[in-house]
Recover the amino acids of this structure.
């Protein structure tokens, strides 16, 4: 039971979520001399990378696209950062910009008080159960796209005798050698987990129902490099040409490509291309079996699929995505956040709502998008708070050096 709350603590800006988006927003504000407080449910910053990502994860984009504002990765950092390095980078980033963070604070409600012209935020200290009240003129929602695990309901699953987990709980193939494992979902996580399992000696199957664009890291980095210079339709054609050379016809192995090109798809839909980490070679070699139909039911250890196939498994990993929980606590209907808990408007109109409400990292543009949002939000807040300062320069204050250390 939550205890009684004290008077609200006044802040200039409250940021909800201490992932890369929240940290970047706090740093950009601090560089403009604006004080903010970050409320984070977990007990660390960057918890996605520490607690909800598998061991072999490396960032899919080269490091130059994965640096937060004002802190490039050093020259000797690996091109594709391992998960733990990126988590360490976020720790160092928070320390370097003196980000004020309250950990283990779950925001349960945030509403705008028009009389007081401020946001009133209620958070629970998960360590003590105490309710805390905060008030601020500005509120930044930075709770990410990967909050609550989504697992589809499958009749009979509750009696499945083996291991069932979400991708967020999967760490490695340890203990799975020789076991028949089903991965459900052909996104980036599902495909990489399938690779990891097969490499670790599991008899691996993966359910890939929809269409997907398989690309390689190298091809995608070429596409990213061309983006400022070429129209998107040309980038799509070049990417597909390179993919045809590298992969051949992926549909022959159960991976059908959408009609819309990969770069257009990334910019205009919630779907990301899948960056191949070696899974495709394993599919071609028969070490990963692609199953095309949804799970229909489970009887004992046998899974029945919608196309009538039946196969026994020892374990099932659901790489079926996440849901945002923002709509549960944000009491606002200004159209900034949609019914799915993500930005309602598309890029680049997505980041600013009414009455000092903003969102960062909620429009499926990855780390790169978090950075852009942070700069825009900090610039806007600073302009509203201190117009004279913003006119002179948009980054006053302690400028960090350029090597990220
Ligand atoms: C396995 C995996 C690999 C990925 N790899 C890449 C990649 O290589 N490149 C890339 O660009 N993107 C990648 N992504 C996409 C990735 O989600 C985003 O880039 C990034 O993590 C989003 O950062 P964020 O700060 O917006 O959200 P998050 O990192 O999810 O941070 C949000 C924070 O908000 C907190 N929170 C949520 N609700 C509340 C609440 N009510 N009160 C208080 N705190 C709350 C959460 O605890 C969390 O710490 C990957 C995603 C996954 C799942």
């Amino acid at each position: 039971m939550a205890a009684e709350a004290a008077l609200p603590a006044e802040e200039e800006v409250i940021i909800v979520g201490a992932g890369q988006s929240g940290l970047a927003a706090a740093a950009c504000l601090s560089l403009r001399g604006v004080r903010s407080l970050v409320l984070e449910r977990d007990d660390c910053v960057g918890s996605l990378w520490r607690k909800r990502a598998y061991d072999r994860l490396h960032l899919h984009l080269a490091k130059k696209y994965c640096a937060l504002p004002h802190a490039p990765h050093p020259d000797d950092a690996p091109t594709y950062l391992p998960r733990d390095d990126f988590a360490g980078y976020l720790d160092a980033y928070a320390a370097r910009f003196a980000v004020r963070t309250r950990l283990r604070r779950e925001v349960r409600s945030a509403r705008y008080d028009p009389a007081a012209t401020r946001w009133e935020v209620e958070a629970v200290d998960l360590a003590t159960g105490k309710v805390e009240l905060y008030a601020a003129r500005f509120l930044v929602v930075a709770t990410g796209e990967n909050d609550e695990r989504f697992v589809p309901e499958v009749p009979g699953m509750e009696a499945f005798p083996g291991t069932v987990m979400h991708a967020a709980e999967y760490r490695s193939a340890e203990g799975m050698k020789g076991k028949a494992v089903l991965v459900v979902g052909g996104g980036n996580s599902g495909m990489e987990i399938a690779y990891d399992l097969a490499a670790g000696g599991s008899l691996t199957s993966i359910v890939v129902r929809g269409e997907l664009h398989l690309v390689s890291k190298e091809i995608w980095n070429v596409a990213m490099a061309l983006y400022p210079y070429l129209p998107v339709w040309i980038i799509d054609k070049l990417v597909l040409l390179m993919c045809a050379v590298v992969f051949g016809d992926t549909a022959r192995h159960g991976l059908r490509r959408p009609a819309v090109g990969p770069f257009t798809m990334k910019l205009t839909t919630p779907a990301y291309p899948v960056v191949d980490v070696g899974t495709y070679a394993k599919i071609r070699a028969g070490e990963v079996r692609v199953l095309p139909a949804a799970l229909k039911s489970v009887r004992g250890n046998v899974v029945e699929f919608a196309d009538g196939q039946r196969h026994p498994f020892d374990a099932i990993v659901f790489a079926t995505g996440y849901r945002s929980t923002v709509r549960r606590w944000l009491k606002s209907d200004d159209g900034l956040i949609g019914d799915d808990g993500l930005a309602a408007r598309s890029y680049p109109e997505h980041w600013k709502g009414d009455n000092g409400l903003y969102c960062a990292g909620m429009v499926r543009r990855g780390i790169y998008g978090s950075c852009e949002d942070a700069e825009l939000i900090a610039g806007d807040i600073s302009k509203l708070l201190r117009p004279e300062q913003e006119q002179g320069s948009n980054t006053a204050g302690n400028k960090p050096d350029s090597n990220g250390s």
In short: The radius of gyration is 23 Å. Residues 16-22, 39-42, 47-48, 53, 57, 59-61, 106-107, 142-147, 189, 325, 329, 361, 366-367, 370 surround flavin-adenine dinucleotide (CB under 6 Å). The chain has two domains: 2-147+324-398, 150-318.
